[in-house]
Amino acid sequence: TEVPVAIVGAGPSGLMLAHLLARAGVDAVAVESRTRAEIESTHRAGILEADNARALVETGVSDRILRDGHEHEGIELRFDGRGHRIDFAELVGASAWLYPQTDVFTDLADARARDGGVVHYGVRDTEVLDVEGDAPRVRFTDSSGIRHELRARYVIGADGSRSTCRALVPQDRSTQFFKEYPFAWFGILTHAPVSAPELVYAQSEHGFALISQRTDAVQRMYFQCDPDEDVDAWDDARIWETLQQRVAGRDGFSLREGPVFEKTVLRFRSFVQQPMRWGSLVLAGDAAHTVPPTGAKGLNLALHDVQILADVLARTVHSGDDAVLDEFEPRALQRVWRAQNFSYWMTQLLHTTPGSTAFDHRRQVGELDNVVGTRAGRTYLAEQYTGWPTRDT
Ligand code: DHB
Questions:
Q1: 0.95 surpassed by complex ipTM
Q2: Distance 306 CA to ligand 1 centre (A)
Q3: Pocket of ligand 1, beta carbon within 6 A
Q4: Distance, CA 323 to ligand 1 centroid (Å)?
Q5: CB atoms inside a 10 Å sphere around CB 53
Q6: What string of DSSP letters covers 113-147?
Q7: Is 181 considered catalytic here?
Q8: Catalytic one among 72, 120, 304, 351?
Q9: Residue 179 annotated to the active site
Q10: What gap in Å lies between CA 315 and CA 313, rounded to an integer?
Q11: What is the pLDDT of residues 314-358, one digit of tens each?
Q12: Which domains does the chain have, with CATH numbers?
């Protein structure tokens, strides 16, 4: 099969790119090693910047987010036993949407099916060849066991944080920037009512906790844990005791409990590989960069990458001028490093580093006080959390 663009990976990045390219009159075929059911049952992030929520609606993916999503006009930071609201609407006239990544994926997958886009799920033995020249190929075996070859002009590596496309950039021509953290998140889903109207990011001397939501009856919560923590060592009683301890305070706030039906440890790190383009290969989303989850930038950043890439790639393909593609990386990278900084900053602001001293703890409370106690501090957090206007990046 000949196709202008072959996309490796049909998660949110790959599917959104295929959708936007189709709208710009450029055909793309996407291949994905997981099945649709596997992707739809993997719990990921929950927050979309308003610009990305709007993009789903305005580019014709779906308007389901307007019915099933929830617009949040702020978050709460908790420390020193009290809550402090960051009012996005009042500070920066912006908001964020609670809409799980699994729903974003479902909307995109349905849109591809509705519009006749070709997506092969559940493929194996994917090989990407000849990306250095102008006739790259992608070979794969589909879910019925049939071997295919896509002959493309460009190949996009949108294959997530464990990307294999990333390794096609020769090691001596690429740089990997990364930072590891000495903690992870223990994530749960519980059948319980909502505990607070908005998300609660809690710092405590016992470590970080995040109280998020999924529906009126299902809640998503996380607490800081050791990266090697074993989920089987945690029964419901121990999980609730830990979460309650981390959000407790003199205002009497406590969580509404219920049975826990899903437990996972999320290890995290900060990572960027540059360049994002190598010959006829372009990396997008987590394949090129990952951020720690605090502040929910991973999915948002991936969606921004592909909005920029769709614009640049469509102009490249229509003009036949390969040099146009050079516009992608500098436009994408500015936001990548802003988001790297924000995710790192939110992480260090709220987590307890093992081995930290009483000084470290007091200093951290001083920083939190500066954030919530000054208009400049609150505005900084609100601006970064809700996302940077596209014209800036
Ligand atoms: C969720 C995840 C995040 O990393 C975050 O910062 C906020 C919410 C979530 O899964 O709901």
A1: yes
A2: 21
A3: 45-47, 199, 210, 212, 220, 293-296
A4: 38
A5: 23
A6: HHHT-EEE-S-EEEEEE-TTSS--EEEEE-TTS-E
A7: no
A8: 72
A9: no
A10: 5
A11: 999 999 999 999 999 999 999 999 999 999 999 999 999 999 999
A12: 2-72+97-177+269-352 (3.50.50.60)
